[in-house]
């Protein structure tokens, strides 16, 4: 009897401990985590035990709207999470990280681009994400802030469905320049060169995360969100170059 | 009935005039080219930098008397410049940066002496002044030009104060250089973190 009581206490304390720390991958069922393509490397490095669906945040929003079985949605823009929240499809979103936009060019740099203003001067094939994709919208904001959007947008040869599409095209030399997140550069650092955007022209890049309202694994999903907001989650994001949660 | 018609016309006329004014104002805003707003975007970032710089200069306790008062006033001016430039953007439904969007950094030892503070401030202010000069001669909306011209006159006073502390000479070139946004961005890049 005493042994049984001890076992119950042990099981309960372990369970509570895991729930309170939001430990990644500590639940029986794998979560379906729908996340922005820019999180492709960092989320599995933080927790390799979930099912991930990486794509443009706008595409993921549409999938969730259409009833896709997501448990957690992590978006590269508050636009997508807030839109779902207003529709009652996700719980209240929270900001969990931030990022910066950079310009990338192939290592060979055939167009000779050395700064963002060169985009307006040189004859270049520019690759962007589509305007509905967060990084596509951010890129257009950068160009507008710099006062060169009209001339540069006339040189766009491709509108990709997510940021990895832009990275791939530039890495393969199928475009002369493209806008991506600073965190997208590391995995292709041997193929592309990153060019800084002036700080005053940077858009406000905020990532939000939310538990999907119809999730069948809400408790685990909430713990996962808590985990990414916690010390371990934030350390993983920082290691990948993401910025801390803005105050 | 003519009486009613007159009254109704009298009531409707101001409303129509107001609507027309609103439409015209809106048209003027949307007619502003993006290059005009680019100067304001730059100015907002630069004034946040200057406000931070002067705040740290004041807190350094390296100044007293008239110099301290001047730096405090310059910090106040930066806040007012910021408000005016932000208004250009918000009136034009453009994104407006906030303080939290920036982190600033300065060369090691910047706030260690009066001279190093003044030299750093001078480098920043001269880049900003040169850009406002470009804005004052190139933006197309007259009301924007007026804002840039007034802000640059104030910035020139800051340059004079800092130049006096850094070099002992409060008056510089007869014709300060105009700076492009590109050159100014390069000049200020070392002060922006992230």
Break the fold down into its secondary structure elements and pairings:
The complex is a heterodimer of chains A (about 250) and B (about 190).
Chain A (H helix, E strand, L loop, with lengths): L1 H20 L10 E5 L5 H5 L4 E5 L1 H9 L6 E4 L2 H9 L7 E6 L1 E6 L11 H4 L4 E4 L4 H13 L2 H5 L2 E5 L2 H9 L5 E5 L10 E4 L9 E7 L6 H12 L1 H9 L8
Helix pairs in contact in A: 3-4
Chain B lengths: L1 H30 L2 H26 L5 H27 L22 H25 L3 H26 L13 H8 L6
Helix pairs in contact in B: 2-3, 2-4, 3-5, 4-5, 4-6
Describe the structure.
The complex is a heterodimer of chains A (247) and B (194). Chain A is α/β, with parallel strands linked by helices and 247 residues long. Chain A has 2 domains: 26-98 and 205-239, Periplasmic binding protein-like II (D-Maltodextrin-Binding Protein, domain 2, 3-Layer(aba) Sandwich), CATH 3.40.190.10; 101-201, 3-Layer(aba) Sandwich (D-Maltodextrin-Binding Protein, domain 2), CATH 3.40.190. Chain A contains 10 helices and 10 strands. With 194 residues, chain B is mainly alpha-helical. Chain B folds into 2 domains: 1-31; 33-191, Up-down Bundle (Ferritin). Chain B is 73% helix and 0% strand. Chain B has helices at 2-31, 34-59, 65-91, 114-138, 142-167, 181-188. The termini of chain B are far apart. Mean pLDDT of chain B is 89; it is low at 1-8. Chain A binds chain B through residues 100, 115, 117, 141, 144-150, 196, 198-204, 243, 246-247, and chain B through 33-39, 41-42, 44-46, 94-95, 97-98, 100-102, 181-182, 185-186, 188-189, 192-194.
Largest sheet of chain A, in brief, is:
5 strands, mixed
Radius of gyration of chain A: 20 Å
Secondary-structure class of chain A: alpha/beta
Q: How much is the average pLDDT of chain A?
A: 91
Number of domains of chain B: 2
List unreliable stretches of 5+ residues of chain B. Answer: 1-8
- The beta-strand count of chain A equals 10
Largest interface, Cβ cutoff 8 Å? A-B, 22 and 28 residues
The helix-and-strand class of chain B reads: mainly alpha
Largest sheet: number of strands, sense, barrel closure of chain B: none
Strand content of chain B: under 5%
CATH topology of the largest domain in chain A: D-Maltodextrin-Binding Protein, domain 2
Regarding quaternary structure, what we see is heterodimer
- What is the chain-wise order of helices and strands of chain B? HHHHHH
